[in-house]
Amino acid sequence: MVSQKGIFNNIYKNLVTPILKQDTGIDAEYLTNLSLTLLTFSSNNKNWPLIAKIIKNLNQEFCVVDERLHQKICGIDFSNPLGLAAGFDKNGNAANIWKDFGFGFAELGTVTKFAQSGNPKPRLFRLAKEEAALNRMGFNNNGAENLVKNFLKQGIDFKKNRKNNCLGINFGKSKITSLSKAQEDYLTSLKLLIPYCDYAAINVSSPNTEGLRKLQDPALLKELLREVKNLDDCPPLFVKIAPDLSYEEIEDICKIIIDEKIDGIIATNTSLDRLGLEQRKIKQTGLLLSEENGGLSGRPLQIKANQIIRHIHNLDNKIKLIGVGGIDSPESAWERICSGASLIQIYTGWIYKGPQLVPNILNGIIKQLNNHQLSNIRQAIGSNLKWID
After folding, report:
1. Does residue 389 sit within a domain?
2. What is the CA radius of gyration of the chain?
């Protein structure tokens, strides 16, 4: 008999996990959208008695509360260090309930000034054996104005009145906007959404919008960040970087972060490097991974993303880091924190492992704090402490 406490995880394991064990079958994007439809309905109707009961049970199953996981970073209270990465909830449809899945914060978006449909389909592919994904979505979203409407529909108030629901927003450039007008594009979205976000992520690293990564060029990035920083009531700012940069390029970005007093870096986005999977065939298209456009995410990115976090932390430990890319277990989460990440995010790993990954990671971190006799997670950041079984 399935216990009430584990009912949602068991539903996921029995209904969704079998689908994720193969590349083909139900289309990956269709499955994502179906999930979001259910989550959207729940988030919009959170006060309905039945929905309220379901969400309460979600909370009891997946939330882990321990004061040792709490941090105050850039003036923001994070109840725990584990967040949902950008890309899943692009339009903030479920912004009201991510905390009930146990997340300490959720990063919504990527959002752009203009609504856009993104790149042609198919554009999201499972690599089941490797627990990875290839995506070339292209910032498909309904635009910044729509995101405000979604917040209001869910009863999400301005950040100053919102408790225990930490939300970041990831901002990108619209496809139709030229590189020369990118600043205005970002600024328009930010002006609309600053009142609602605890922090802003400036995305200059997606491989799926032509020319976007050129904004990682030091001169262009410095100019963009300076303009954003000058906005009224500007929230804490993080720059999301690509995993495909050289260490020299990363160091140039770090210098800008320090010089312009930007709060931190999110490392990393998806990778154009095929990370040893060049000959892996995408069954839906018949092409090799080396022949396909798009960014690779999931477990293959784990080592590279962790190396970048460690490099930045060793370069300057004052830069606040959010680690993302290939985190799919308590061990990989602990490693990323001990390499220098103050916060971590999951997406692809969460899909493959299911919602139980959140409490598994948080309980794993607590176990390591106990094993290493640490009183708060802050003591683990950049410590290079090893996992103790």
Report:
1. no
2. 20
Q: Domain range holding 53?
A: 4-379
Q: State whether residue 99 is helix, strand or coil.
A: helix
Q: In total, how many domains does the chain have?
A: 1
Contacts of residue 286, Cβ cutoff 8 Å, sequence gap at least 6: none
Write the CATH number for 77.
3.20.20.70
> Quick one: CA dihedral 62, 67, 69, 73, positive or negative?
positive
Catalytic-labelled residue, pool 42, 43, 79, 206: 206
Nearest C-alpha neighbor of 365 from the set 82, 53, 42, 33: 82
Run of H or E residues at 304: helix 302-315
**206 in active site:** yes
Q: Does residue 16 lie in a domain region?
A: yes
Q: How far apart are CA 378 and CA 341, in angstroms?
A: 10
C-alpha distances in angstroms, 248 versus 154, 308, 341? Answer: 44, 11, 20
- pLDDT tens string 145-184: 999 999 999 988 777 666 778 999 999 999 999 999 999 9
Contact between 89 and 95 under an 8 Å Cβ cutoff? The reply is yes
What's the rounded Cα separation, in Å, for the pair 247 and 311? 8
Residue 147 domain flag: yes
Contacts of 84 (CB under 8 A, 6+ apart): 98, 101, 103, 105, 106, 107, 345, 346, 347, 350
92 close to 147: Cβ distance less than 8 angstroms:
yes
63 with 356: CB under 8 angstroms? no
Using the Cα atoms of residue 256, residue 262, residue 265 and residue 269 in order, give the sign of their dihedral.
negative
Instruction: State pLDDT tens for residues 48-73.
Output: 999 999 999 999 999 999 999 999 99
Q: Has residue 249 been placed in a domain?
A: yes
H-helix or E-strand spanning residue 219: helix 218-229
